[in-house]
Amino acid sequence: MAFLSDTLARVKPSPTIAMSGRALELRAAGQDIISLSAGEPDFDTPAHIREAAKAAIDAGHTRYTAVDGIPALKQAICDKFARENGLDYKPSQVSVGTGGKQILYNALMATLNPGDEVIVPAPYWVSYPDMVLLAGGTPVFVSCTAEQGFVMSPEALEAAITPRTKWLILNSPSNPSGAGYDRAAMQALTDVLVKHPHVWVLADDIYEHLVFDGFEFVTPAQVEPRLKDRTLTMNGVSKAYAMTGWRIGYGAGPELLIKAMAKLQSQSTSNPSSIGQYAALAALNGPQDYIAESRAAFQRRRDLVVAGLNTCPGIDCPTPVGAFYVYPSIKDLLGKTSAGGKVIENDEAFANALLEETGVAVVFGAAFGLSPHFRISYATSDAELTDAIARIKGFCEGCR
């Protein structure tokens, strides 16, 4: 009898976490490493949020809370959805979890049965397919190439839907590509979904506020109200308010689903951090100036990185509309040999050689389901980004 679960054999460790870990190990060994692999803002959590957390500790809010969130935070989430997205929810339709990742995981675990299919546009965040597999479902990938702007067409969505389809996971703006669905593109997808009432929508809106050049963010249930009763709209405070370590995510949807998610959470982690919840309450209800400031900084960094990468021989970098990632192609580098003697057979070989020869850590495109690409997170300083681009350019110039 095997000791480890067969379920565990269906999934693999997160490649982004693995690359970040490798970069940390090399740095600890004394190497000069620039890590562009982690997806978290490098800014401090805004002061008023930090102060609210301290006040919560002093007030004794350090005990267990309701399993899926304190009432005040649930109401603040309802207010946020009404204010920013035109969506009307009650607190009983809201779930708060330990990060947005738990909201997604709970929803899939609470709903998937063996044979159920989940449509996942590729490139995708690395955790989506493995969460589906852990829940016993089958991920169905829809390739969305650079030529398509990394977005899924309504025709491709229609073709992917079968009688077994239970969910579509839609992440806009996207990790890893930074691509987003404008209102017209989103409407085209929702028009397809309206025709298939057995398909639910899992909208991952975690990068909602990180959009550039006047791009208008929309979420599926906002564009098509007829989908609201079969949509889970997920968001969180990690990216918008530089609160990755606070581990607070939330989702809103039909009470049937929210109750099922709470039941699952009650037997796994129970409530998210009480202090984190009070910090999130201050984030949602307090001043929102930080969002515009961070957005401006990220847009400046995006422009720096896109311009720099497009001077690198063999790299083609599209300009994303949101998030804090770029997803360049290395198609013209395939088959070449680096100055250090490494053959660039694929994007994983490229990322490994780049780290070994220049100390720049990126994540290879195969981890996100679309090659030959790599992902850079530009959530770091302008100085580090400038240095990293110079190293990448030197690496590319050395390839023969």
TrEMBL record:
Highest taxon of the lineage: Bacteria
InterPro entries associated with the record: Aminotransferase_I/II_large, AspAT/PAT-like, NHTrfase_class1_PyrdxlP-BS, PyrdxlP-dep_Trfase, PyrdxlP-dep_Trfase_major, PyrdxlP-dep_Trfase_small
GO biological process terms on file: amino acid metabolic process
Cross-referenced Pfam families: Aminotran_1_2
EC id: 2.6.1.-
GO MF annotation: an example: pyridoxal phosphate binding
Necessary cofactors: pyridoxal 5'-phosphate
Reaction it catalyzes: L-aspartate + 2-oxoglutarate = oxaloacetate + L-glutamate
Residue span, Aminotransferase class I/classII large domain: 32-392
Keyword terms: Aminotransferase, Pyridoxal phosphate, Transferase
Alphabetized PANTHER family for the sequence: ASPARTATE AMINOTRANSFERASE (PTHR46383)
Family named by the database record: Belongs to the class-I pyridoxal-phosphate-dependent aminotransferase family.
Protein name: Aminotransferase
Source organism (scientific name): Paracoccus zhejiangensis
Organism lineage string: Bacteria, Pseudomonadati, Pseudomonadota, Alphaproteobacteria, Rhodobacterales
